[in-house]
Amino acid sequence: MRAVTGQVSRREVLLGTAAxxxxxxxxxxxxxxxxxxxxxxxxxxxxxFTLGVASGEPLPGSVVIWxxxxxxxxxxxxxxxxxxxxxxxxAADEAMRKVVKRGTATARxxxxxxxxxxxxxxxxxRWYWYxxxxxxEASPVGRTRTAPSAGAxxxxxxxxxxxxxxxxxxxFTAYRHLAAEDxxxxxxxxxxxxxxxxxxxxxxxxxxxDCETLADYRNRYxxxxxxPDLQAAHAAFPWxxxxxxxxxxxxxxNDRDSDPGMDRAAFLRLRxxxxxxxxxxxxxxxxxxxxxPTMRLYRAGTMGDLIDLNLLDTRQYRTHQPCAVKWDERxxxxxxxxxxxLGAAQEAWLGARLHRGAARWTVLAQQVPMMRxxxxxxxxxxxxxxxxxxxxxxxxxxxxxxxALRPDGLIVLSGDVHAAWAGTLRQDFGDPASxxxxxxxxxxxIASGGDGRAMRPRARRILAANxxxxxxxxxxxxxxxxxxxxxxxxxxxxxxxxxxxxxPMETAASFTIAHGHPGAEPT
Length: 523
Ligand code: FE
Ligand code: CA
What we know:
The protein has 523 residues and is α+β, with helices and mostly antiparallel strands.
């Protein structure tokens, strides 16, 4: 995406409500002049749009466009503590000549001068281009796409899903390739940032110690968002995003950190800061704006009559992980009927969605793997207690609902484990006679884990112990999905290395699911 200065002249740029009073020129071409009290003077001529642009939450007539003014991105943003008016434009062409919507929005210091403009009145299922303008500077031009009309006959939709981008472990080369794909949507399943401190002998270095304050999280998001490959992927497509654990702290569950030394009140303060910074840096709607330590991340998108996309949150409402250690034999807690991964409200919401679902394919886009991934070690069957494997009753409840409600073409998309897996979801895992209820595609990481290998001994042991799992690849990348009325095809796109830039992209494996025939077949 190239920056286009276009016809927005320096004289027309809107500046500083603090200096100018509450002058609203929304919907007019805009002609408020800069004044000597212009708060952007403090930006000192430095670039404002250092973190790029993004769009997301596509609806048939609406999409969110995002940016953040940050002349000093790693030092708190560098903006004066005042609100700033910013012009935005949405056009039907990349050159931004055919502007179809324009307006102004206020970047507020309490939200780190981020902007989340919910542009309305657009046409369904078409490309648009957008940019912002402040202080005489135009942002890069981003491209976005609205969703198809609900219920409209749709023959084809293409999406890619990603997760787990530990900056210290590697370059975001996968995003460079993703930006060049032919997609309608990107879905991010969490671990957008990693909250941890600087580690030595890594490919790239974090900018601080462990994130502990809102300022720390903001600077960490800024570090990630300075990455040009990530910026390119945001500028190319609209995104839907849900967070996992590392947006807050490793393996957190609800109100509890994985570090038993942190008390509940302190953890919830941390979670509030983390969610706020996440909101500030992603193209969310106002419905996702956090209130204290709560943030409504579970929500749905509909892609014509083809896809019901249900975005789930498996961190905020779950009961605490059972058993003693992360990979453990099943203790009684794993079977606790009172345990939950989604919480009662989200579970009821999802049940109603599955009941009503009218699209050809029903997608659950969520974080931790749902399929059973047991591993034998010295005669003991070990399960990862942070995943659905630690919440057996909750998973059985969800799969029982799937069996009763028979949502069309159930596809579960997961991330979190830094490796690609594909498998069949069954009421009774490991029993090929148990009916297949859906197909799960677990995507690999963008960078977390560094250079991966296609196969390792531990993965081989998991494949051997779980007949429902038919595929593994431990290299970095993303998963591209082509959805038609009859088939769902997932292509596992992988790179051989991320510890230096420039790796070529290849498809490690493809799986095609025929509608009405759930389950991944061995390739
Ligand atoms: Fe991760
Ligand atoms: Ca994770």
